[in-house]
Amino acid sequence: MGELPHLVKDLALILIVAGIVTIVFKKLKQPLVLGYVVAGFLVSPHMPYLMSVVDRSDISTWADIGVMFLLFSLGLDFSFKKILKMGASPIISTCSIVFCMMMLGMVTGHLFGWSRMDCIFLGGMLAMSSTTIIYKAFDDLGLRQQRFAGLVMSVLILEDILAIVMMVMLSAIANGSNPDGGQMIGSLMKIGFFLILWFVVGIFLIPLMLRSMRKLINNETLLIVALGLCCAMAVLSTQVGFSSAFGAFVMGSILAETIEAERIIKIVEPVKNLFGAIFFVSVGMLVDPVILADYAWPIFFLVLTIIIGQAIFGSLSFLIGGQSLKSAMQCGFSMAQIGEFSFIIASLGLSLGVIGKFIYPVVVAVSVITTFLTPYMIRMATPAYNILERRLPKKWIVALNNITLTRQTTQPEAKWKSLIKQMARITVIYSILAGAAVALMLTFFLPFIRHILAHWWANAVCGLLTLLFISPFLRAIIMKKNHSEEFKALWNSNPYNRVPLVLTIIVRVAIASAFVFYICNYLTRFTNALMISIALAAVALMIVSRSLKKRSIEMERMFIQNLRSREIVAEVMGHRRPLYEGRLLDRDVHISDFTIPEDSLWAGKTLRQLEFRNKYGVHISSILRGSRRINIPNGDTFIFPGDKIQAIGSDEQLTALSEAMNREMYDRDIEIEKREMKLHQVVINRNGKFAGKTLRESGIRDTYNCMVVGIEEGKENLSQIDPSRKLNPGDAIWIVGEQDDIMNFCKDNDKSLAGCENN
Question: In sequence order, what E strands does 98-166 have?
Answer without folding.
Answer: none
